[in-house]
């Protein structure tokens, strides 16, 4: 029989280390029974083999035998107290047994050995939550997310802790992130929406009524569906920054955000694709672009990315999230965005002295470094930089703060299916007559 290349039928290894290596390879392929035989072989050759004790302990956990797991992991730690993984797995086993205080101590030990150990931070959060220490659990989950930003279970765990602290809106953001990473978790989102609705019935009901009115317009406006226009949302050129927790987070983290943006080289920006300039140059650095995450750009700016992903930002094709640079002498002519479902936030990063500003409707404002301006970009607006220095702002679209979590979840679903470009064109053609001559189709 040909044994080459198949670890299962290999001759029995003669050293504990060789058996351990083979066992790990099989374990990695989830071939648990075969891995178990080889861990046992390693232990019969060297009963104190710390690696074999540790991974057989993990395997027992996977077999749902947490007591046996604890015994093996404790032995592993006796042999090698510096093995962070053994402490972490022991913590998970103890958590499974409901011994949360001890589970927490194990994760703390693992983290003392490896401070950015993502799984240990995750399970430290679980133990803290179970012990009722919810604010600390939230901090631990947030630290874990900084290590593994795309982990749906971690997002769900954070959502649960936020919900337990009465922070439903934030819980919703993380629940939605989880579903984005793993659509099989959609049930968890709909259950969460049900709970939020029960806690705030009047608000939830008003939201569903608006949504019905909105969908009703599809029926009556078949020839001219203005899908960007949502009924019943507060409308004004400028809005209070305090209505958007995400905008406040941008202001709080201004120093780190500014440092991230200033570290970008001019060549990393690209020319804005829409031809809205009367003159000058408009360059952008995109984090999300019509529902697509720009991974490379997001990695360059971790603080900005974390704020984007922890808040009610519009990450469907209806939103844009980017750094905008207007070169000296640039004027963006009057135009309208496609929808009132979002509010646009500009955080001033570099604002020259002199004549630069933003007009929305009939009111002109000037940005300030470190402060946000929140406006409704579905109203006519224009921006200019008539100074001889560049002007830089961070632009983040947020869901309109009047929208309930359920409305946002449904709108996201719609945006996934609808062609927002067609909508945008409609919005342009249905704009009022005097601005129509000047305004250009513009999704930004
Ligand atoms: C906008 C816009 C241009 C800018 O944010 O909608 O047109 O960079 N802004 O000021
Ligand atoms: Mn615009």
CATH class of the largest domain: Mainly Alpha
Strands, total number: 13
Major sheet characteristics? 8 strands, antiparallel
Mean of all residue-level pLDDT scores: 90
User: CATH superfamily of the largest domain, called what?
Assistant: Tetratricopeptide repeat domain
Structural account:
With 444 residues, this protein is of the alpha+beta class. The protein has two domains: 16-199, Serine Threonine Protein Phosphatase 5, Tetratricopeptide repeat (Alpha Horseshoe), CATH 1.25.40; 238-399, B-lactam Antibiotic, Isopenicillin N Synthase, Chain (Jelly Rolls). It has helices spanning 16-28, 32-45, 50-62, 66-79, 84-96, 100-113, 118-130, 134-147, 152-164, 168-181, 186-199, 201-220, 245-252, 254-262, 295-300, 302-309, 405-417, 420-429, 433-436, and strands spanning 238-239, 270-271, 277-279, 282-289, 292-293, 320-326, 330-335, 342-350, 356-360, 363-365, 372-375, 381-385, 391-399. The strands form two sheets. Strands 1, 2, 4, 5, 6, 8, 11 and 13 form an eight-stranded antiparallel β-sheet that branches. The protein has a five-stranded antiparallel β-sheet with strand order 3-7-12-9-10, with no helix packed on it. A hairpin with a 2-residue loop joins strand 4 (282-289) and strand 5 (292-293). Helix 5 (84-96) runs antiparallel to helix 6 (100-113) and helix 5 (84-96) runs parallel beside helix 7 (118-130). The protein is elongated and about 80 Å long. The termini are far apart. Residues 335, 337, 377, 381, 442, 444 line the site of manganese (II) ion.
